[in-house]
UniProtKB/TrEMBL annotation:
Residues 18-37 are annotated as: Disordered. PANTHER family: BLL4672 PROTEIN-RELATED. It holds the Pfam family HTH_31. Residues 36-83 form the HTH cro/C1-type domain. It comes from the Bacteria. This is Helix-turn-helix transcriptional regulator. Residues 27-36 have a biased composition (Basic residues). InterPro entries: Cro/C1-type_HTH, Lambda_DNA-bd_dom_sf, MLTR_LBD.
Length: 289
C-alpha cells in the first residue's frame, strides 16, 4: 500500500465530510463547488499554511510531525480510531489518546467484573482509580468500598492508608512496580491534569512515594505474582493478569487467581464462596467533582 497516497486520500475525505455548520463557523461568502470544508479553513484550524495542506492532499511526499498530525486530527474532528490511523499512515508513533474523564465504569465492563466471580476482579483506569470491583476483590482488599469513593485508588490505598502497610508482604517491590507503571501512564498522557494532581498528592504526602518516583523506573505490568497478608484471613499468594479492553484502552481488568490450594482456601473463607452484585462508582479525588 502506498501510505503517502492513502494519507492524502484520508485527509481529503475527512475534510470533505465536514461543513462549517459542524464546526459552528460562519460560511464563507463565495459559493462552494465541492462538499466539505475548504483547504483554507482546515489550514486555519490546524495552524498550518494552505500550501502545506494542498501538498499533503496531493501526496507530495511530506512527512508531517506528530504535532502537525495532532493539530490536523483536531481540525478534522477525527475520532480516536481515525486519529491512530492518521498517525500510522504518516509513520509516526501515535500520541496517546486523550485522557478519559473520570467517571463510572462502562456498564458492560462493570457486568464483566461481576461475571468473573469467584475470581477476584476489579476495573481500574490508567491512574489506578478503581472503577468497579466484585465482592471477592473488595473483601480481599480489606473492604476498601467502606471508604469514601475519592479514596478508591490502589496507589492511594497502598501509600496513604496505614492499614495497607503490611498488606503486601513484598511491599517495596509492589510499590516500585506500581509507580513504574504510573510513570509510563504519565509520560503517555502529558495533558491529564487529574493524573498530575494524583502524583502531586502522593509525592507531597509520602516520603516513600517521592523516593521511588525519583528513581524514574518505567514498566507496564501485564501480569505478575503477589504475596499478601490479610489481617484476619492470614497469608496467601495470588497471580494476577491485566487485560485491556480493545474499545477502551484506558481501562484495565485486573484478575487475581490463587497461586496454590492454601491460598484458594483463604479466598474461599473470605467470601464464603458467594458472589454479590458488582460495586462500581466514580473514582478519583474530590478535585474531580
Amino acid at each position: 500500500m502506498d501510505l503517502t497516497h492513502e494519507l492524502a486520500v484520508f485527509l481529503r475525505t475527512r475534510r470533505e465530510r465536514l461543513t462549517p455548520r459542524d464546526l459552528a463557523r460562519p460560511p464563507h461568502g463565495r459559493p462552494r463547488r465541492t462538499p466539505g470544508l475548504r483547504r483554507e479553513e482546515v489550514a486555519e484550524l490546524a495552524g498550518v499554511s494552505v500550501d502545506y495542506v494542498v501538498r499533503l492532499e496531493q501526496g507530495r511526499g511530506l512527512r508531517p510531525s506528530a504535532e502537525v498530525l495532532d493539530a490536523l486530527a483536531r481540525a478534522l474532528r477525527l475520532n480516536d480510531d481515525e486519529r491512530v490511523y492518521l498517525f500510522d499512515l504518516a509513520r509516526q508513533r501515535p500520541v496517546s489518546r486523550p485522557p478519559s474523564a473520570t467517571g463510572r465504569a462502562p456498564s458492560p465492563l462493570a457486568r464483566l467484573v461481576h461475571d468473573l466471580s469467584p475470581l477476584p476482579c476489579m476495573l481500574v483506569d490508567h491512574r489506578f482509580d478503581i472503577l468497579a470491583a466484585n465482592r471477592e476483590m473488595t473483601r480481599l482488599m480489606l473492604d476498601f468500598d467502606r471508604l469514601p469513593v475519592e479514596q478508591h485508588n490502589t496507589l492511594r490505598l497502598c501509600i496513604l492508608r496505614p492499614e495497607y502497610r503490611g498488606f503486601w508482604r513484598d511491599r517495596e517491590m509492589v510499590v516500585r512496580e506500581c509507580i513504574a507503571d504510573l510513570r509510563a501512564a504519565w509520560a503517555a498522557r502529558p495533558d491529564d491534569a487529574f493524573l498530575d494532581e494524583l502524583i502531586t498528592e502522593l509525592t507531597s504526602g509520602s516520603e516513600e512515594f517521592a523516593r521511588l518516583w525519583a528513581r524514574n523506573d518505567v514498566k507496564v505490568n501485564g501480569r505478575g505474582h503477589k504475596r499478601l497478608l490479610h489481617p484476619t484471613a492470614g497469608p496467601l499468594s495470588v497471580d494476577y493478569e491485566v487485560l485491556n479492553p480493545l474499545g477502551d484502552p484506558d481501562r484495565r481488568l485486573v484478575i487475581y487467581r490463587a497461586s496454590d490450594p492454601a491460598s484458594q482456601a483463604v479466598l474461599d473463607a473470605l467470601t464464603d464462596g458467594a458472589a454479590t452484585p458488582v460495586r462500581d462508582g466514580v473514582a478519583g479525588g474530590t478535585s474531580r467533582r
